[in-house]
Amino acid sequence: MALVPHEQIIEDHLQELLETVRRDGVLRQPVIMDRASMVILDEHHRVSAMTRLSCPLIPTSGESPTRRQVRAAVAVSISG
After folding, report:
1. What is the span of the domain harbouring residue 33?
2. Is residue 5 included in any domain, yes or no?
3. Pair 22, 50: CB distance under 8 Å
């Protein structure tokens, strides 16, 4: 199951993030998603950056339907 985006991406912000990831070689914060629906709740630009960098997996942190954050981060497919 792939992540489901729902926000517009601002190209300037995305380019800054891409530069940071290329320079540092790491994504420092996970993408926050709803575990049940796989909808991205925060960090849409990170998903777009990882897609442009052809990364097959990205770090995520899921939230339950009650919005309590799950402690463990998991990697999920960005392509399905």
Report:
1. 11-77
2. no
3. no
pLDDT in tens, 24-40: 988 888 888 888 888 88
Instruction: Tell me, yes or no, whether 1 lies in a domain.
Output: no
User: Count of domains in the chain?
Assistant: 1
Look at residue 62 and tell me if it is in a domain: yes
Contact 35, 62 (CB under 8 A): yes
pTM of the model: 0.71
- Longest CA–CA separation in the chain, Å: 37
DSSP code, position 36: T
Q: At 26, is the secondary structure helix, strand, or coil?
A: coil
Residues in Cβ contact with 33 at an 8 Å cutoff, skipping those fewer than 6 apart: 3, 39, 40, 41, 60, 61, 62, 63, 76
C-alpha 32, offset from chain centre: 7
Please check whether residue 33 lies inside any domain of the structure: yes
